[in-house]
Amino acid sequence: MENFLLTFPMVAKLATNDYVGFTFFVGCMAMMAASAFFFLSMNSFDKKWRTSILVSGLITFIAAVHYWYMRDYWADFGESPTFFRYVDWILTVPLMCVEFFLILKVAGAKRSLMWRLILLSVIMLVTGYLGEAVYRDAAWLWGLISGIAYFIIVYEIWLGTAKKLAVKAGGPVLQAHKMLCWFVLVGWAIYPLGYMAGTPGWYEGIFGGLSMDVVYNIGDAINKIGFGLVVYNLAVVATSEKA
User: Which CATH number covers residue 114?
Assistant: First the structure.
């Protein structure tokens, strides 16, 4: 048994100052706890909000699984798990866009809004991956394209169709929409900092001292769990008002 444990260690050994490894472990456990919370609370709400809560749970569950792999990858190789991170994002970020559609269905939101936001999020992520992992010499260009897609999403939810639907719905839906908009505007803005910290470009002298993975890990925890909590609060308020 001792030889087995030496050959296949059950716990990775991390240095006390390994803040990247620390945030991977904390992020993994936080996402797991959030998933359990959302899944177990689903039946407490009116039917029309259960899908939103389910999606919140799926977002954090998918992230938790990927963080499990990413923390081990970091512990074993000491390298940024870029591939795993973008696989996580390509699944969870479009689901975060779906949340806007789900909460705005009460105001008559159409599927075209959902697919438009999903498409923009995929463009944002694919171009970000190309700049970070494939064409690093042109990272600034791919980052610019990714940023354009991001700002179109920001416009859509703050001033476009999604905003108009939120105003039409009013009440707790409008408040929840505003909170989600702030997460996208401020919370998602954390990711470009990580991108610039981990890729070459004119910005290296400004952001080169930051740890890309620490920035990404903090951003994921804030945004994915925060998104879910906003939707959870909406479901609580809307269900209590109906009762």
Answer: 1.20.1070.10
Query: Is 80 exceeded by the pLDDT of residue 2?
Result: no
pTM (2 decimals)? 0.91
Q: Is 43 exposed, middle or buried (0-12, 13-18, 19+ CB in 10 A)?
A: exposed
Residues 35, 54 contacting (CB under 8 angstroms): no
Domain that holds residue 88: 2-242
Q: How many domains does the chain have?
A: 1
Residue identified by tokens 């997460």 is 183
In degrees and rounded to multiples of 5, residue 188 shows phi and psi of -70, -20
What φ, ψ does residue 91 adopt, rounded to 5°? Answer: -95, -45
pLDDT band at 4 (very low <50, low <70, confident <90, very high): very low
Distance, in Å, from the CA atom of 11 to the CA atom of 183, rounded to the nearest integer, reads 34
| Residue in 150, 188, 169, 179 with CA at minimum distance from that of residue 241 | 169
- State yes or no: pLDDT of 150 exceeds 80: yes
Q: How many CB atoms lie within 10 A of CB 100?
A: 25
